Amino acid sequence: MVGRLDDERGAVLVVSLAGLLVLSSVVITAQHPPARIGLAFVFGCFIAAGELVRIPLPGAREAAPLGAAAALAYALLGKLPDGRTGHTAWDVVTLTALATLVGALPHIGVGRAPRLDELARRLLTVAFAAAAFRPVWDRGLVGSSVHDNLRLAVFMVLVAVLAALLDAVLAAVVRADRDRSPFRATLRGELRNLLGLGSAIAATGVLIALAAQTMGLWALPLFIVPLLMAQFSFRRYATIRETYRQTIRSLSRVTEVAGYTETGHSGRVSQLCVAVGKELGMSEQDLQDLEYASLMHDLGQLSLTDPIPGGATVMVTHDDQVAIAKLGSGVIRQTGVLDRVADIVERQADPYRRPHEAADLTLPLASRIIKAANAYDDLVGDSRESSRRLEAIERLRLSMAYDFDPVVVQTLARVTEHAAAHAL
What we know:
The radius of gyration is 26 Å and the shape is elongated. The protein has two domains: 2-242; 253-423, Hypothetical protein af1432 (Orthogonal Bundle), CATH 1.10.3210.10. It has helices at residues 2-7, 9-31, 37-52, 65-76, 89-109, 116-138, 150-179, 183-215, 219-252, 254-257, 265-279, 284-295, 318-333, 339-346, 365-380, 386-398, 406-423, and strands spanning 55-57, 61-63, 79-80, 83-84. By secondary structure, the protein is mainly α.
C-alpha cells in the first residue's frame, strides 16, 4: 500500500491543488456570479461537449482538445462586439469545473471515468491562464482591441504558451512518480508531445478569444471545427496504433501456442522491459520500439527443429542465441515497417562488452534491456517466490562483467523489487 501511495504522490498533489482551487472558486462565484450568464452557458456547452468526445492518446493518456480550447478561450476573452465580458478568473475555474463534470457524467455512467489527475491538470492550466490574463486585462494594461494594440495578441500567445508549459510540467510530475522515471526525461517527453495537440489547443484558444472581439460567439464554431477534424485524425491514429499493438501481441504468442516458449513469457518480458526503459528515461518512441521488440524477441525459435526446454534461451550457447536473434529479426524485417525493431531484436544476444575490450557503444539500450529481462524471466518464469527472484538477479550480477549492462541489471533489480512489494 505504501508503494502505491508513493507512486501516486504527484497525482495526489495535483488533484489536491485542483480540488482546493475549485472549492474556493465555487464559493466566490456563488457570492458574485458572472455578469453575462448567457456567455458562460455557451462556453460551458462547448467545454462539456469537448469532455464528452475526449480522445485516447498514446502512452495511456486521454485529452479533451475541444473542451480545453474552449476553456482557454473563455479565460482569454476580454471583449465582444457589444462590450466587455466582465467575468473573473474565479468564474473561469468554476465554469470549467462544472462543464467538465457534466461532460464526464456519461463516461462515468458507462464505467469510463476520466483520470482525476488529467482533469485536475486541465483545471490548473486554465486557472493559470485566467489568473495571468484577466487582472491585466481588467486594469487596462493591454489594448482593448488587437487592431489598436498588438500587445494584446502577443500577451495572449504568451499566456497560452506558459499555460501549455505548465500542463507539461504537471504531466511530467504525475508520470515520473507513476512510471518511476527520471523527471527530466519525462518532462522532455511531455514537451515533445506539447508540439502536437498541445500547440493546436493553445492556438485555437487564442484565435477564438481574438476573433470573438469582432465576430462575437460565431468565432467558437468557426475555429472549433478545424480542431474537431484534427481530433478525429488523432482518434483514428490512436485506434490504428492500438490495433497494431494488438496484432503484434497476437504474433508474439505464436511461439507459446507452438510450444517453443512458456505461456506468458513474451508478455512478462515486455512488461519488464518497458518498466526498465521508463526508469532509464527512454523516450516514448523508443519505449514503443522496445515494447514491440520485446514482444517478438523469441520469434527466431520457430526455426528450431527441436524446441529449447521451456524456451529458456539463457540455457543455450551464445552462438545459438545469436542465430535465434538473427532469424527473428529477419522475420520482423520482412514487414517493411519495423526496421528499428528488427535491429533491436537482431542484437539482443550481443554481450555488453567483450573480453579485453571497452563496452560496445553501438549496442542499442533496448537490446541490452531485452537481454537482461529475457534472462531474468527464463530463470524466474511466473513464480512469485522471493528466493527465485533474488537468485536470478544475483546470477545476472555475476555476469555483468561481459554479458549484461550493469546499469540495466541494477534497474531491473529495482523494478522487480518494486513489483514484488506491490504484489504483497
